Amino acid sequence: MKTYNFTTAILVDDTPEKVFNAVNNVRGWWSQEIKGDTNKLNAEFTYHYKDIHISKMKIIEFVPGKRVVWLVIDNYFDFTKDKSEWKGNKMIFEITKKGDKTQLQFTQDGLVPSYECYDVCHDAWTNYIKKSLHSLITTGKGQANPRGEESEFNEELIRKWSLQE
Question: Which domains are delineated in the chain?
């Protein structure tokens, strides 16, 4: 049976090492509302977007120049019935040479059309990978979500979310 995990790819004129480094600069292309390390095996980090989305990720594969995989340890959406819809999904970044170019393929293993968030997540990932991450790789500047109006990471919200288990 075929699964329909979300996947998208970009092709750039840069080295696999440069693409790998950009992927791991999560604050540069996804969000400045990231707390924790994003560039080493077994590191954990938390993504936070207002009170709409919070995710805790663990880097479970980290092969320089080739592959990075994040496991979604926990997730909270305020706009879906199943608040933890991404929990257990894997974000897979695969880097391969294609002639004189480098391809980055992103797959969210577990993000399937039956998910309530599928359309929103599909559009968001497409933007982050094809525009923001692509721009970070090719120009040195991505379009990550800026820090919120509050200048501090919302620790209270994170604590409340963690206690809802």
Answer: 6-160 (3.30.530.20)
